[in-house]
Amino acid sequence: MEIVDELGKITIMKDGKPVDCEILFTFENEELQKQYVGYTDHSIGTNGRKNIYISSYNPLADKKILEDITSPEELEMVQDVLNQIAEEK
Amino acid sequence: MNIEDIRNLITQSQNEIDHLNDVRRQLEEARSTMTEEEYNRELADINSHLETEQERLEENQRINRHYNNVLTNLNAINDIRNIEPRDDEEREEIEREITARQEEIQRVSGNLPEELLAQARSEVLQRNTTNQTQASQPTTTPSVSEPTQEQAETTKLEALQRQIQTSQQEILHLNEVMRQLQLARNLLSEEEYERERQNITNYIERATNQLREQNTTITAYNNMLDNIRKLNALSEVVPRDSQDEDQIAEEKERREEEIKRARAILPEEYQQEIRDIILKEQEEKRKNRANPNVDESTKKTAKEPNKTDNPVQPTTPEKEPPALPSGTEKKQPALPPGTEKKQPALPPGTEKKQPALPPSKEDEPTPEPKKRVRTLEEILDYVKRNKDGKPLRIKGKTGKRLKAANIQVTKSFSEELHSGNWLYNVVHVAPAVVGLAIKGAKKLIAKFNLWRTEQQDVEKEIRDRINELSEEELDVVRREYRGQRVIEDLKTPSVVKDLLREKIAVEDARKTVAGINQRISANYQTLLATFNGVQTIDKQLADKSLSAEKREALTAQRAALLKGKADLVHETRELYIQGNDELSGGAHGFSEDVKASESKMNLQGKRFAKVPDYDETTAELQEALAKLSRREKDACETHDDEAALRAFVETETLKSKETEISNSILGKRSTGRMYYSPLVGELDYRDDPFIRDLFSTVALVGAGVSAANAIRTHVTEAPKVVDEHNAQVDAVNAHNQDTMSQVHQAGQGIYDKADVFRKGQEAQAQQDVVNFGNTGERMSLDSSAIEAGGDWGHGLGTSFYRNADDAQHAMTESIYNETQTRISDIGSRYATGELDQLAALQEVGKVAADSQQTLTNLVDQYRPILEQYASTHPQFELGAMQSGLEFISQNPTAIIDMNQAMVDTVQMGQSLTGLTVEEVQALQNLPSDLQTTLIGAATAAGLAFKTASTMDQRYAKRTGYGNDLTDMVEDFVAKQEEKETVRSK
C-alpha cells in the first residue's frame, strides 16, 4: 500500500451543480482488469456519516466512465481495501 | 484407389459436366459469330467430352453405391447379431435377416474392386474394434508387449456398458410394445389384453432387474478402482503435521471402507481386472518417475535408475514395489486380496461374435490400437500445459475473494480512518460525473494490456487441451467433478476447473441425466406394475373357496413379485438425487419436495411467514409427505419389500395429486401445491426457490400495474364500449361531412399515437411474461435451499443475499399495499362522483406509472443476478425471461407513455361519439392492436391474454413440464381411485 499526498479529483453533478470530490484511494484488480476509485464530496448523510462513493472504470478505455459496483465479490473486495487501509499503520 | 478417391472423382466429374454445359451454353450464344462448320465441330467436341465424363460419373457413382450397400449390410449384420433373441421365433427371424443381408453382400461384392472390399472390411472392423481385436493386437502402448491393463479395462467396461445399452434398448422397446398394446386395447378382449400386459410386464421386470444388476456392477467397479487409486495416492502423501496425519488416516479409513463395500458386490473377474489395472498404473508411475524425460516409445526398454541391472518386470509386482517418497518405503499400494501372484487378465473377446466380413477375404486390416485413458491427475497435468508440453503460466484466484492490488491512499484519508472519528456511508452507485482527473492510472494500462493478451492465450491453450481429451478421459473427469463440486485436495487453478466444468456441465450433464431418467422410468414401470400385480393376487387370495394348492402358488407368486422392490425403491430415490447432482450441484432446490418432507425444514422454515399461500392444508401435506418418506426409508433399510412399495406408491400418489399440471404462458406448469416430476431436470428454473422468489417479487409489483390498468378499464373504458355501440346505432343515418371530418381528424390523432401504443403494449406484454409466469406460483420455500445456495458459486447463500431477499419481501409488501390503497381510494372517489371518468383515469394512470417505475428499478436490480444465475445453470432456457426483463429495463417509460396516450385517446374518443357504420369501418382499418385498445380491451388482462396466446404458441413446441412418466403416474393414480370407488360402492 502506498500513502500519497494527493490522488486527483472528480467533479460530479449534484442538485444540478458541479461539485468537486476529493479522491481518497485507488486500487486495481487484475482478474477483472478494472481500476477502482474511492472519492468524497465531504457531504454528510442523514445518519450523520460521511458519504464515500466507490466506482470502477476501465483504464484501457479511451474515455473513462465511472461505473457502479454491483457484484457482491467486488463489494467484498472494497470492504477488504477499507479494512486494509484502516489497519495500515 | 480407396472410396475417398472415388467420391472425389464423382465430385470432379460433376464439376466437369457443369463446366462443359457452361461452355456449350456460351457456344450457343456465340453461334452467330462463327461459321456453321466451326460451330458443329466445337459442339461435337463438347458433346464427346460430356459423354465421356457422364460415363465416368455413372461408373463411379455405381461403385460408391455398391460400397455403401456392402457397408450398410455388414454393419446391419453386426448390429443384428448383438440382439439377444427373446424366443425361438425371434431367433429365426434374426437368422433370416442375416442370411438375406449376406446374400445381398455376395451379389454386390462381385462388382467392387478388391481394394474397396478391403476398405469396407476395415471400416467394419474399426467399428467393432473393442469386441474383436484387443486380444490379438500387437500393442503400441508404452512399456509392455502384452495387451495392457488399460485395454483390458476398456474392453471389460465397454462390454458391460454395451450390455447396459442393450438392456436399456430392450426396456425402451418393451415400453413401446406396452404403449402399442394400450392403443390396441379396444381391439382385444379383456382376457387377451391382461395376458399380453402381464407378459410384457414380466419382460420389463426381467430386463430391469438385469439392468439394475449391471448398473450395480459398473458402479461398484468404478468405486473400487477410484478408491484404490485414491488410497494409493494418500499413501504417498507426507503429512505436514499431526492434524494433517489424522485427516489422512481418516480419509484412508473411509476409502478402505468403500473398497470393502465394492468388493462384497463385485464379481471376482472384475476385481481381478482392477488388480491388474492398479499394478499396471503403479508400474507406469514408477517408470515415469525413474525416467521423466523418456519418450513413450522408448520406455519399453528403459531401465530403472539407481537399481543397477534389474530389468523391469511388470508381471511380478511383489518384486517391484511402486515408487514411494523417501521415508515411506514400507508403504505398499492398496490392492484387493490375491493380487500378488496373479497375471494380468487377458482381455476377453475370443468367445465374442465375429463381425460379418465380405466373403473369401483373408487379409484383415489392423485397426488402430486404443489410446490409453489417463487418470484425473494426468489429465489435469496435460490440460495445464501448452501443445509443446511446457507448463502454462496460469494465474489462478486464491480462493473466491477478489484481490485488490496496487492500493494507493491519501495521507489525509488514512489518518482520518485511523482516528476513528468518522463513520462512512459507502455508496457504490456512481453519480453523474463531469470531470475526472485521477493520478497514477496511466501506468497500469501497459500492464493490463500485457496481462490480458497473455491470459487470453493461456485460456485458449487450456481450451485446446480440453478439446483434445478423449471421451474416456472426459469420463474420468466427470466422475471426479460431479455437478459443480470440485475435489478439494487437487490444487488446480480455477480457470482449469471452470473450463472443465463448462465442458462437462454443458455438453455432458444432459446426456447423463437422460440415461438416469431412462432408468428411473424403467423402475417406475416395474414398481407400479408390481403394485398392480400384487393387488390382483390379493383379490384372488380373498376368495375363500380357493384351494390350498392354488393359494400356496399365489402366495409364492406374490412373494416373487415383491422380491427386491425395497432395493428398487431405494435405487430410484438415489437416482433422482444423483441426477440432480449432475444438473445443479446437488439436490438442493429441485428435490425440495423430497428433502423438505424428510427434514421437516419447511414446517420450521423461516421464510414461510412471508408466503401468503402457505396454509394449514400445505402444512398437512408436508407432514403427510414427511411421514410417508420416513416409512419408505425405514422399509428400504430393513428390506421390507411390501412396506417399501406401499410407501412408494402412496408418496407418488400424494405428490401426483397435489401437482396440477395445466397450460400456462410458459408451457405446461403445475398450479397445484407441489411442483413434482418423478424425472430429473423436468422442473425448471421457476421451481428453484431463489429465482422463484426473485421473480415473484417482480411479479407482485407488476401486479400493481396490472391491477391499476384493469381498474381503469372497468371504471372508465368499459362504458366507452357501450357509448360507442350506442353511437353506432344512433348515428347510423345522421352522418354529415362535418362528422366525417371530425372522425378523420380524431382518427388521425389516434393513429399518430399508434407507435406509442405499440411500444407500450410490447413492454406490457414483456412484463406480463414476467408477471404471469410467476404470479400465484409462490409456494412453500425451503430455507435450507437458499442456505445451500453456495453451490451456485457466487455466494447466493451469503448474508448479502439473505438481506437482499428480506428487503425484497418488505418492499414488495409495502408497494403492493400502497398501490391497493391508492386504487381503492380512486375507485371510491369515482363512485361518489368526486372524480369524473377522465380524472379517475388520470389518477389511476399516475398509480400505474409509479408502480411501473418501481418495477423498472427492480428489474434493473435483478437483471445482473439473473445473468449470473443463467450462466451457472446452463440447463435452463432463460433467454425469453432475460430478453423480457431487458426490454422492460431498456424501455422504462414505455408503459407510462402508453398510459398518457390512453388518457389523450379517451379525450379524443369523446369526440367520436356519433360515429356512423362507415366511420366505424374506417376505424377498423387501423392496426388491430390499436382497435382493441380503442374499444376498451387494451387492459392488462386483455393484453396478458393476448400475450398468453402468443407465448403459448411459441412455447408449444418446447418440451415443457410434464412427460410420459408424469402421465403414467397420473394414469396410475386415476385407476387406483377408480378401483377404490368401485370397492366403496
Précis, in short:
The complex is a heterodimer of chains A (89) and B (985). Chain A has 1 helix and 5 strands; from the N terminus they run E-E-E-E-E-H.
Rounded average pLDDT of chain B: 62
How do the strands line up in the largest sheet of chain A? 2-3-4-5
Largest sheet of chain A: 4 strands, antiparallel
What Rg of chain B do the Cα atoms give? 37 Å
Q: Helix content range of the residues of chain A, please?
A: 10-25%
Q: Can you tell me the residue ranges of chain A where pLDDT is under 50 for at least 5 consecutive residues?
A: none
Question: Can you give a write-up of this model?
Answer:
The complex is a heterodimer of chains A (89) and B (985). With 89 residues, chain A is α+β, with helices and mostly antiparallel strands. Chain A has one domain. Chain A is built from one helix and five strands, in the order E-E-E-E-E-H. A four-stranded antiparallel beta sheet of chain A has the order 2-3-4-5, with no helix packed on it. The radius of gyration of chain A is 14 Å and the shape is globular. The N and C termini of chain A lie close together (11 Å). Chain B is mainly alpha-helical. Among the domains of chain B are: 3-127, no CATH class; 520-679; 688-954, no CATH class. Helices cover 67% and strands 2% of the residues of chain B. Chain B contains 32 helices and five strands. Chain B has a two-stranded antiparallel ribbon. In chain B, helix 2 (36-81) runs antiparallel to helix 3, helix 7 runs antiparallel to helix 14 (494-541) and helix 23 packs across helix 27 (879-890). Chain B is extended and about 105 Å long. About 31% of the residues of chain B have low confidence. Chains A and B meet through strand 1, strand 2, strand 3, strand 4 and strand 5 of A and strand 1, helix 11, strand 2, strand 3 and helix 12 of B.
